[in-house]
Amino acid sequence: RQINLEKGTEGLDYCKSTNELWVTNNLSNYISIVDLDLMEEIKQLPTGKAPVRFKFSSDEKFGIVTNKDEGSISIYNVERRSFVKEVIIPGQSNLFEKIVYHSPRLVGLCFHPTEPYAFISNSNANKIMVVSLDKLELVGSINVGEIPDGVAVSL
């Protein structure tokens, strides 16, 4: 059976606890939630501009989307299938921020397997942004090489 989603599907992740696939729709600015038992889209959740990557936290409590054209991440409660919070990365508000922080272009993301942190690559600033899942806010950054994209944690 085939499931048809909007144009621009890009990032996705599988949730074992719900047997669902959450898929970003880059051109439509939302996430499609696909129930794999029913083999159909059961819900759409709005995102920021140009959502490109999606990942579930290690405990499957949260899902995070990187919104590359907006310089933000959207955080979702998986159990409720609902939006929780948008975290805006500095660099979009005004000319000063754009010069100092570089306009953020958030792409790849991953989670620490045992600690409550998400790591998000910011390709324009050459940094990995660190977001606390306890506080649901940006808590730091790591300087890296040029134009980071994919990111992973290995213990």
Number of helical stretches of at least 4 residues: 1
Percent of residues in helices: under 10%
Strand order of the largest sheet: 1-2-3-4
Gyration radius (Cα, Å) is: 15 Å
Shape: globular
Please give a structural write-up.
- The protein is mainly beta and 155 residues long.
- Helix content is 5%, strand content 49%.
- The protein contains 1 helix and 12 strands.
- Strands 1-2-3-4 form a 4-stranded antiparallel β-sheet, with no helix packed on it.
- Strand 9 (106-111) and strand 10 (117-122) form a beta hairpin.
- It is globular, with a radius of gyration of 15 Å.
Question: How would you summarize what this structure contains?
Answer:
By secondary structure, this protein is mainly β. 5% of the residues lie in helices and 49% in strands.
Give the topology.
Elements: E1 9-15, E2 20-25, E3 30-35, E4 40-46, E5 51-56, E6 62-67, E7 72-77, E8 82-88, H1 95-101, E9 106-111, E10 117-122, E11 127-132, E12 137-143
Antiparallel strand pairs: 1-2, 2-3, 3-4, 5-6, 6-7, 7-8, 9-10, 10-11, 11-12
List keywords for this structure.
155 residues, four-stranded antiparallel beta sheet
